[in-house]
Amino acid sequence: MPRYDYDLFVIGGGSGGTRAARVSAALGKRVAIAEEYRFGGTCVIRGCVPKKLFVYASQFPEHFADAAGYGWTVPEASFDWPTLIANKDKEIARLSSVYESGVEKAGGDTFHSRATLVDAHTIRLEGEDRTVTAEHILIATGGRPNPHAALPGHEHCIFSNEAFDLPRLPKSIAIAGGGYIAVEFANIFHGLGVDTTLVYRGKEILQRFDMDLRSRLHEEMTAKGIRIRCHTIFERIEKRDDGMLAATLNSGDVLFADEIMLAIGRIPNTEDLGLEAAGVETGARGEVLIDAFSRTNVENIWAIGDVTDRVQLTPVAIHEAMCFVETAFKNNPTEPDHDCIATAVFSQPEIGTVGLAEDEAAKRFANLEIYSASFRPLKHTLSGRQERMLTKLVVDAATRRVLGAHILGPDAGEMAQILGIALKAGLSKDDFDRTMAVHPTAAEELVTMYKPTYLVKDGVRTTC
Ligand code: NDP
Prior knowledge:
Elements: E1 6-11, H1 15-26, E2 31-35, H2 41-46, H3 48-67, H4 81-105, E3 109-112, E4 115-119, E5 122-125, E6 130-139, E7 143-145, H5 160-163, E8 172-176, H6 180-191, E9 195-199, H7 211-224, E10 227-229, E11 234-239, E12 245-249, E13 254-257, E14 259-262, E15 266-268, H8 275-278, E16 301-303, H9 314-329, E17 343-345, E18 351-355, H10 358-364, E19 367-375, H11 379-383, E20 389-396, E21 402-408, H12 412-424, H13 429-433, E22 454-457, E23 460-462
Parallel strand pairs: 1-2, 1-6, 2-3, 6-16, 8-9, 8-14, 9-10
Antiparallel strand pairs: 4-5, 5-6, 7-15, 11-12, 12-13, 17-18, 18-21, 19-20, 19-22, 20-21, 22-23
NADPH dihydro-nicotinamide-adenine-dinucleotide phosphate is lined by residues 176-182, 184, 200-202, 207, 233, 263-266, 312-313, 343-346.
């Protein structure tokens, strides 16, 4: 008779949790997973996937406009928000059931219930009013938008969660934040015809990305008609009698909008999870503290994904899940590798990036070669669109190693995925140079920039 009901109990059915449950069950382990909302978690239900569908929806007006240069006459187009929401919901429901059935087909039990820890081996399933026991427990409860409780009137605001299911498309929106979510949603709403203002507290949107991409994206978004106000924060939000929201800014200006969205980061979901009862330690932001192998201070309890507040990205949570399975069940202790992660911002134009930004590289390397090209993508020659593409390589002059690759323009995210392999492998600029170009593509610029555009010596830009 086994000592516990399960070998593994996973709390949280997002990308990381379901992957750990499915793979562990497929190994023959007795596995259960509990999800209090919908299987699929943030990424599938109210994050990456519906966001990308919304990005596609918001790009059609530009496609229609671009068609004219190619000889097409497109009749006046109209957009129906409820149709987009209904079709998105159908796809999300399909994906959610795939996530859940994937665990079941591998032999795991799935519970639609909130689960909390009673002690280090006991889990309470609130929906079922019972407890189960497990040898290992994996906490994969993810995160949620920072509610910005310090902002007077924050209760009138929406977050990315609500943006996916608004009953009607607003005429105007103001968005706080300058990170992934704020920038992506500013472009989505603007593309769908919403009067959009982005309010960011810092000097330039998208901190931590390469400055050339940040400033060029800022210019392109502004050219499209998105208002971006940097060095600005909301001081209070009030609801007027007519339902309109009034946001008072630190400048004293008042900004009016149908909706105000806060996208100022996400916080770990650890409240009322029973972590204290189980003896699990958390950090200042409520994140579960773990060692290099995703193990908490309690030997049989582990944590992966956004609840650990390491790198808040879906593929990272999945990677951490796979490493957990290796460590816990395959006698192969494996540390997640968080180095050199390629990433995309689905702004319009899109950003794809991997490795070090120029500023960051300049702090670590004495001599850099910067290769940079700015050009009009071929498609825009006939469409007449003025948008330009930017490709940039940051190279360590001493070793010729490519330290960073940064792209702004169509399909930049797809390019970043492939560049991620090259940079992870530590390839040099010479490897890029001896790679044959694929013509005519935008990506060919990455292998045809033979001469440095400028050098960076001890942090200072100089000409070649
Ligand atoms: P980010 O960390 O990307 O950005 C948060 C933004 O909010 C920053 O611009 C930050 O400013 C600003 N901010 C923080 N606190 C305040 C405050 N008190 N008042 C005003 N502004 C504030 O978080 P997001 O919410 O955009 O996204 C959460 C995470 O989700 C991201 O970190 C990312 O990892 C992930 N994500 C990934 C996507 C992708 O891969 N394409 C898409 C969407 C989300 P400052 O820069 O000055 O700190």
